[in-house]
Design a protein that fits this description.
62% of the residues lie in helices and 0% in strands. It has 19 helices and no strands. α1 (34-48) runs antiparallel to α2, α6 (149-164) crosses α8 (186-201) and α18 (379-387) packs across α19.
Length: 423
């Protein structure tokens, strides 16, 4: 029997006759070369002119037909400089250009803020442009020497505004550390304008937070050549330029760095068991060298002393261990409580530590009494702490603990005054 497969439906091949397929939206985009892309964008910008609301709408709508992903650099070149940029930052003579761009705008913050809004809307609409935009700004910063003074000023304003609203990350500042820009003073001069714009959008604390986020806070000295990379030079330059807030921030960063190094060295010295006289001598030298106040120093010393031991987990043994440990380091603490304010600072540090480390709650009074006997704390400082509320942490509990000792101090003070009067 002969079997025929011709009528078997499984063997029939599908036919395209009469079938229609839905075309994906991305396939509808016109395939432009960069020059054609540029012409399309510039035509649209020129048609909308100085109406930046209309410009933003045009850019929003054009993303559906033009390949922003492929030609992001061309797009941003046009919006900033008016046309495609050649290496070095110049516009070629034969390149089509537009005046609807940042470089041709009026040189004032209000106008540049309006342009910043155009970038914000565009990048919010097409999130994939974020990275390309950051790369564009980094490139433009490297091209600074190719721009006029006015163009640099407008770019600095724009960058500061976009850093302020979070469109850009502070990591873009790395381009300003370019050796040639630094050497010719271009980086520092540009940074002045950029930071003025940024701080006008946000306060110095927000700026500092953004810099710290990408570890840029410790690199600002690199805006100057190696022979001028000192905190004193930075502070003078930016203070003279009207940016005292930034100068103070960098000075505080220097002080913070010095304090961290000091704390680490003190911890190492204690771990090695170095003589207290040597530790005191070293700490006093660092205080003088880095202009560290005694109040700051006593806080550092307290932290080091309390971090130098593994504390017992049993509360009944902990207090005894703490008193023994602190008695050993009393001469060190005493060396940095010469001023009354430093004594009060230490009392508040003890209060804070005992509150934050609950197993020390009952040890507060014993520690204060120990320091009184060891001449670390005076009765004046203790009575002032008792009378004047400075910190809420556990205060009511610690006041109750100190009640009897304070009464004894007051009585001793009255007796002393009485004896003086009799003499």
């Amino acid at each position: 029997m002969e079997v025929s497969f011709m009528n078997n439906p499984k063997q029939q091949k599908p036919t395209l006759t009469g079938q229609r397929f839905k075309t994906r939206k991305r396939d509808e985009k016109e395939k432009f070369e960069p020059t054609q892309f540029q012409d399309s964008i510039i035509q649209g910008l020129n048609e909308n002119g100085s109406d930046l609301e209309a410009v933003a709408k045009f850019l929003d709508a054009s993303g559906a037909k033009l390949d922003y992903r492929r030609y992001a650099e061309t797009l941003f070149d046009i919006l900033v400089a008016g046309g495609m940029l050649a290496p070095g930052g110049t516009l070629a003579d034969n390149v089509t250009r537009t005046d609807v761009c940042v470089f041709a705008a009026q040189e004032n913050l209000e106008t540049i803020r309006a342009y910043a809004q155009v970038f914000n809307k565009l990048i919010r609409r097409y999130k994939y442009l974020e990275r390309g935009f950051e790369e564009e700004i980094k490139k433009l910063l490297l091209f600074l020497k190719g721009f006029t003074e006015s163009e640099r000023t407008k770019l600095a304003m724009l960058t500061g505004i976009l850093l302020g609203n979070g469109t850009l990350s502070s990591s873009i500042l790395s381009s300003l550390f370019n050796e040639n820009l630094v050497k010719e003073g271009v980086s520092a001069a540009f940074a002045v304008k950029l930071f003025k714009s940024w701080i006008s959008e946000k306060d110095i604390n927000a700026v500092a937070g953004s810099l710290r986020k990408v570890n840029m806070d410790n690199r600002l000295l690199e805006l100057f050549p190696a022979n001028k990379q000192s905190y004193d030079h930075f502070v003078k330059y930016f203070t003279d330029a009207g940016l005292k807030e930034l100068a103070d921030f960098v000075r505080n960063q220097q002080s913070l760095g010095a304090r961290k190094e000091l704390q680490k060295e003190l911890q190492d010295q204690m771990a090695r068991g170095d003589p207290l006289k040597e530790i005191i001598s070293y700490a006093k030298e660092e205080m003088k060298k880095n202009s560290i106040s005694e109040q700051t120093m006593i806080s550092i010393v307290w932290n080091c002393v309390m971090g130098a031991v593994e504390w017992n987990k049993k509360e009944e043994l902990l207090t005894e261990q703490a008193i023994k440990h602190l008695k050993q380091y009393s001469p060190l603490l005493s060396a940095f409580t010469v001023q009354g304010q430093s004594e009060l600072t230490l009392l508040l540090k003890i209060q804070e530590y005992c509150y934050d480390n609950i197993q020390f709650m009952r040890a507060f009074q014993k520690i204060v009494v120990l320091f009184y006997k060891a001449d670390v704390l005076s009765e004046e400082a203790i009575l002032k702490w008792y009378r004047e509320p400075n910190m809420a942490k556990g205060r009511s509990i610690f006041l109750e603990q100190m009640k009897k000792f304070v009464e004894w101090l007051k009585n001793a003070e009255e007796e002393s005054e009485s004896e003086s009067e009799e003499d």
